[in-house]
Amino acid sequence: MLKAENGEFLLDGKPFQVLSGAIHYFRTVPEYWEDRLRKLKALGLNTVETYVPWNVHEPKKGEFHFSDLADIETFIKKAQMLDLYVIVRPAPYICAEWEMGGLPAWLLAEQDMVLRSSHPGFLRHISDYFDVLLPKIEKYLSKHGGPIIAMQIENEYGAYGNDHAYLELFKEQYQKHGIDTFLFTSDGPDFIEQGSLPNVTTTLNFGSRVEEAFGKLEEYKPGSPKMVAEFWIGWFDHWGGEHHTRDPKDVANVFEDLLKINASLNVYMFHGGTNFGFMNGANHYDEYYPTITSYDYDSLLSESGEITQKYREVKNVLRRYVDVPEDVEHEIPTKTYGSVKLEESVSLFDTLQEISTVKENLVPLSMEDAGQAYGFILYSTEVNRKGELNLDTEPFRDRAYVYVNGKLEKTIYINDQEKTVQINFPDDVNTLEILVENMGRANYGQHLTDKKGLIRNIWLGEQYWFHWTMNLIELNVLPSDYAGGKEERFPKFFQGTFDANECHDTFVDTKGFRKGNVFINGFNLGRYWNEMGPQRTLYLPGPLLKEKGNTITVLELEGTTTEDITLVDRPNLG
């Protein structure tokens, strides 16, 4: 077992330096887990670390998923097959630029819920979840001959709160389920006091200034072993921002600073992967910053698993300190499949009966209160007034399209400075429709409780409006019928088919489209937003393809200048 004694780590009684890299199994298709793990081992690392996202494994209360992208046990077994140790961070909060930091959206439907605290309701839900999750992990602990040598308590809690009774719960839960392994907390150097526990090893998260960071740890817990649980070697991107990169030599230099003092470390990220579907998170500071689909993170491996110059620079450093394998530079081929004609199209409004569920209520419900997690929600009601009316848009989360009598009148975004817009109602009785997109719940900080849709009734023309119909559109089901549609307005689904000889990785270039999602054979690759960037292509892993008859579906929200989409062999992150 792993232990911390006299300022160093011991594994089975012998000095041990944790040299780990982060790979999130839920961000990489299972067919590529072994490839990524082999490249991690080939770098010279001895351990792989992963978060465990609660919202992936329990998307609805009491409904548990542990297959496909959620098959954590197979991921652990593949690591063990390669003689890698494993660090598991089951949180339940993971941050990770993941939707709501890994917390399930259904928690927000409970009106008195207090997230990340010792609130009895929150603890009860964690206990129910851990009753299912932890037995799946326990059997892979090192005490049973498995690869798991350490587990984290919560995640960066010092940057959120100070409820130590909540942190103590995790020790109790782990004990209850026989999780007899090395435990640790991790926080930025400025937050370790609030996020640490007595008799639990404190680790740090940072990307530079090694001496300064460990100096703060020594002040707080003298004699602690030196470990950086997240050595940030890159950064994530948000829509409308620049693609972040970090000089490979700078990363290698700080990496060597850590090795010089025999510090243990976990490279965050070794391989970032992809925020498939609607699972990107967001940060909310001065305004709302939704994370892009790619989680490339300027990692040691690219989003598609390519070995980078940063990987090579770090490996050159490691060679001076530990024995590393010979170069293993197996690359997964990519391919240009060319242009695909999207021959069929249909308005979302003509597909509602098939792709949505309907609820009616006196006032509009948020997504969470309506029982919806992701996607879109369409609100509709009648407005029996005529003329220009002021609409308060403050309750809109996050992006909304406002239609009157079937005509688009306004597009609203949460970051708009003006929170009042004028809407024209031409008739004595009008149909008002508001289609709202959830662009990702906040994954960090004070806005973690981040409801979506209309979070309260709208104030229109100096009054509230009652009696609403809501169509819940999670896009777990796509349209099957593209014929006979009467609507011409966006959003629209576009669909085409193509063959993919050899089923190689490729990248979807959405040039000519504006904003929406792309699906391949029903699998949601994620969002694009071309007027904002920086991401210009979506990664399409080869295992999602078939040799013959692939169906590509584009949900375009705003408009397009083309009905063709192109599959290219290189990504474009701006």
TrEMBL record:
GO molecular function: beta-galactosidase activity
Domain Beta-galactosidase galactose-binding span(s) in chain numbering: 491-550
SUPFAM superfamilies per UniProt: (Trans)glycosidases, Galactose-binding domain-like
UniProt EC number: 3.2.1.23
Alphabetical list of Pfam families matching this protein: BetaGal_ABD_1 (PF21317), BetaGal_gal-bd (PF21467), Glyco_hydro_35 (PF01301)
Annotated ranges, domain Beta-galactosidase 1-like first all-beta: 364-471
Keyword Hydrolase included in the entry's annotation: yes
Keywords: Glycosidase, Hydrolase
Domain Glycoside hydrolase 35 catalytic stretches: 8-320
Keyword rRNA processing attributed: no
PANTHER family found in the cross-reference section: BETA-GALACTOSIDASE RELATED (PTHR23421)
Protein family per UniProt: Belongs to the glycosyl hydrolase 35 family.
Name of the molecule in the record: Beta-galactosidase
